[in-house]
Design goal:
alpha+beta, Nucleotidyltransferase, domain 5, Substrate Binding Domain Of DNAk, Chain A, domain 1, Rossmann fold, 3 domains, six-stranded mixed β-sheet, 17 helices, elongated
Amino acid sequence: MGIAVGIDLGTTYSAVGRIDPTTGHAVIIRNPEGEAVTPSVVAVMPGGKTLIGAEAKEQQELGYTETAAFFKRSMGQKDFSLTLCGSQYSASDLAGILLRGLVQQAQEVSGETVDAAVVTVPAYFKNSEREATLEAASKAGLKVLGLLNEPTAAVFAYGLNADGASRKVLVYDLGGGTFDVTMAQVDGEEIRVLGSDGSHMLGGKDWDDALVRWITDQFSDEFDVDLSDDSEQMGQLAVVAEKAKKRLSRANSAPIRVSYQGHTGKYELTRDEFDDITSFMLQETSDIVDRLFASMDPPVSWQDVDGAILVGGSTRMKQVHDYIERMSGKPPLGGVNVDEAVALGAAIRANQNASGAPTMLLGSGSSPSPSDGPSMLLGGRKVTDVTSHSLGMIAESSDRSRYVNDILIPKNSPIPARQTQRRELRVPTSGGELEVYLLQGQEPAPLDNEVAGKYVFTDIPYVGDGRTLIDVTYSYDENGVIAISAVQTETDTSLPMHREPVPEDMSWATRSPLENDLIEKKANNGVANRGEVYIFIDMSLSMFSGIYSAIAAAQQFVYQLNLEYMHVGIIGFAKQTKIFQVASSNNSEIDDCISKLHDLFENKACGLGSYNPLGLLRTLYSDYGTNKIALILTDGEWVGSHHAILDAHSAWRRGIDTIGIGMGDANESFLKRISSVQDLSELTDASHLVESFSKIARVISSGDGLVR
């Protein structure tokens, strides 16, 4: 039986931790060079052999170009691809090579088999980045026990709950390529993460890049030579800058020497100068800390922080220590090497069960000493983490004037989290589908957030009158990975789902749903208008002399439509409103329904009187096509006419067109007020009814669209 390890998969350096079976302490498994951390660099050699770590970085520093570094910043980016020795590599491919190499090194050094691991990720990693990390582990053949947020792992490593004290701890995690800040409440044997924020595009590399720009400016001013035109020279400058930055963590100045094209520049960079040219990035971390404080409920300030933990090699910079002490009034908490804390915390978590109890037996006679390193027994026995981003979906506003971010799981919700949102959907008889666009972020406008995925639910059964309720559920697990499912409530059926790539063009989400309806109508004109027409037929007793004309008009209307594109439904109304035929493309079904209207009239199928039927418009239409039309035939004004006008106006806002045709004692003014298409709304008589319906059918079939 092998061991379970913790892996800090870092942007610039990675580390592997384990639990010492004798002492119960979390310890780093050093690499073959005897170092605690391994450069996160991959090199592909001719013939396909891959190198990682110090060997790969040495190749990089010698100018070998078939190397990759900082690929962690591109995790989850579908358009990222790197060509090395003629082969294409995604960020997860490169991370998989690195993980496989780290595990092999750990096994060689420890002499034990690595069975499984907890892998750490930045707290601010989004769903696509977390899924890419799991994919990388799978490519490495590694069994992942879970993903753990790096700041949470650091809290484990510091063992802050050993004394049972209650305290609020800020974890300031500045690595080589990412920055996270987390607030955690430590109470006895429990760690509760209260909130996280950060940026996966801010880290020590950016300090290096700022220093490289400073060096190139100095060299250009002195010799009028632009070093940035030579990529190989810029690679060497990156090494020089990193070494100077590290020296300034322990000295007040750093000498820099650059030789190029016969010129040699010698510069002395002071710590104050370094702090000055990089101050905007330190300020960016400060802004993120302030943003985290403001997002807490209730908001907190530095006065509420009992102590700050520094994590990540870039926190060795003196400016970071000064910033923490200046803001909190006390020096950062110490106790664990900033490069090792995350891997050590992950190792502790890898050897605990869900409730925080150790899962491995320690050797007899062990007596862990805190000075020897963090102990599995001193680490957090139970942890409650939170969501780093709000999770929502693209939805229509109630008045269909815009698309909105409908948030299901708010930012900083305890995880695992699960939330269900009910959606109403119209489904044609042939079945329907539902598209869900996953949003990560809390901005109201959908495209101001990350569109993290497109989930398509298919084979939704037709039920009742075609109106169905779908429960869409978002789940956010302990790894920070999102799952989306849906159930049709009427049938209690779990709907099949598949994921599709998010379209490159999402501009439709910047328009209103009503605008998109019009655009789709115009786009369909070259083929045919697609949609549904419902014929509302007055079945009150006053229609006695006109029912046959109504039947003939309806039959002629249907005859003139192409049912492949325009589906037709039949509704009768009097005291009650009844759907006799759901919108369909089946000609025989529709014709049979129309033929039975006289018998239904004779049997008073809809009762007596004339009552408003337009309340049905709100839920009547399915998602088929964009044209939604109600053709309303009546011979009088209705009980509830005021509500009918309000219902009609509400339908117009939903993109539904209404056309009122009157016979007998119908009121022309009332017809106009319930009709969105004024030029087709009219009073007529039985002898001209077929003509009126035929004219409407011709306009619908023309592809020119209805004009309000």
